[in-house]
Design a protein that fits this description.
alpha/beta, Rossmann fold, globular
């Protein structure tokens, strides 16, 4: 994710933890080694506090990780409804990528009072460029052995 997209996500105050005067507790659940430097570049001292989980986790650990949090910021971690609904305070998931429906069941979570937020326009250019290259046969070919 680009620094610009993370900055755009950060500016959605409802998503990052300010609703009226109430501060919500937030966790960036899957900040891997690739994302960590980008996250550090966009976080500002005046931002609401957001805890960051850098450790790998299994979906069965979601309720343990997210209990006590109102907001989950997610970058492509699978969040099964059966695990998410066990989280005691969770009301928002901010998805930092494309294809949120591939990682969370938006409809099921909405029925349980958990709203999934996405970043408008995220990846539009990259996805379009990829589609054009695929259509034009310009993508690299890979052999079955992965090379």
């Amino acid at each position: 994710m680009s620094a610009a997209r993370l900055a755009e996500a950060r500016t959605d105050k409802a998503a990052v933890g300010i609703v009226g005067r109430t501060e919500l507790k937030s966790l960036f659940i899957g900040c891997n080694d690739q994302l960590a430097p980008v996250w550090q570049r966009v976080v500002r001292a005046e931002d609401p506090p957001i805890n960051v989980n850098r450790a790998a986790f299994a979906p069965t650990e979601l309720s343990r990780l997210l209990n006590g949090y109102d907001i989950c910021i997610d970058d492509h971690s699978c969040l099964p409804t059966a695990m998410v609904e066990r989280c005691d305070r969770l009301k928002h998931i901010v998805f930092l990528g494309t294809g949120a429906g591939s990682y969370v069941n938006v409809g099921e979570l909405a029925q349980r009072g958990i709203r999934v937020h996405t970043i408008k326009g995220y990846g539009d250019t990259a996805v379009a460029e990829h589609a054009i290259r695929a259509d034009a046969g310009m993508l690299p070919r890979h052999r079955a052995d992965g090379s």
